[in-house]
Design a protein that fits this description.
Blueprint: E1 3-6, H1 16-25, E2 30-36, H2 48-57, E3 61-67, H3 75-81, E4 85-89, H4 96-105, E5 109-114, E6 132-136, H5 151-164, E7 170-174, H6 182-188, E8 192-195, H7 197-200, H8 205-213
Parallel strand pairs: 1-8, 2-3, 3-4, 4-5, 5-6, 6-7, 7-8
This protein binds D-xylitol-5-phosphate (DX5) and zinc ion.
């Protein structure tokens, strides 16, 4: 069964308490929290202080996706804020292995996110050291974009790499996930579906989460 991780980026920030209540009552598994610095991506969202509020609002796993340069400078702050999973972008990390070691030594699960143009083969030498690959299926920076179809080939390739080595790494798909394409994404080998607009802009977010969950 898929892990469903609604992205709070698409939530109504004037109604965060009720958005969190809805998620807590729903079948959502994780909170997906998108941190953007205006440098690695052309948008700015929120930082550790806001993650800490989400931490207080839920007992669910807080899955923090860092779209920032020099993530190593902030790993400890996100641990203190209550992140369970911390993902850094491969493209932002010249010393990726060091970042992974740091995240794990702080007691969090380590994720590596890759942009649409980054081949999955670039993950080969860290795959045994991480818990999650956050595969971007849109260019990072904004919610509400369309799924890039080539991602499906990348999911199949990565699934094969993981299974051949019997690794416990989860594949998370982030961007443009809809009720229409989610089943195809799961069939290609994904474990975790991030969904922003599909959940928060739907007439009945809880029902939408349930529909994603039972695919
Ligand atoms: C994009 C973020 C995503 C985004 C997904 O940079 O990483 O998590 O919020 O939003 P949707 O599901 O609307 O594409
Ligand atoms: Zn994300």
């Amino acid at each position: 069964m898929a892990i469903i991780a609604p992205s709070l980026l698409s939530a109504d920030f004037l109604k965060l308490q009720s958005e969190c209540n809805m998620l807590n009552e729903s079948e959502a598994d994780w909170y997906h929290l998108d941190v953007m610095d205006g440098r690695f991506v052309p948008n700015i969202s929120f930082g550790p202080m806001v993650v800490e509020f989400f931490r207080k609002a839920t007992g669910k796993t807080c899955d923090v996706h860092l779209m920032i340069e020099e993530p190593g400078k902030y790993a400890e702050a996100f641990k203190k804020a209550g992140a369970d999973i911390l993902s850094v972008h491969l493209e932002a990390c010249p010393h990726l292995h060091r970042n992974i070691q740091q995240i794990r030594s702080l007691g969090m699960q380590a994720g590596v996110a890759i942009n649409p143009h980054t081949p999955v083969g670039n993950l080969a030498d860290v795959l045994a050291d991480i818990d999650l690959v956050c595969m971007m299926s849109v260019n990072p920076g904004f919610g509400g974009q369309s799924f890039i179809p080539h991602t499906l080939d990348k999911i199949r390739q990565l699934r094969k790499m993981i299974d051949e080595r019997s690794l416990p790494v989860k594949i998370e798909i982030d961007g443009g996930v809809t009720l229409e394409n989610a089943k195809t994404i799961l069939d290609a080998g994904a474990d975790v579906l991030v969904a922003g607009n599909t959940v928060f802009k739907s007439a009945d977010p809880k029902a939408t989460i349930a529909a994603l969950k039972c695919l």
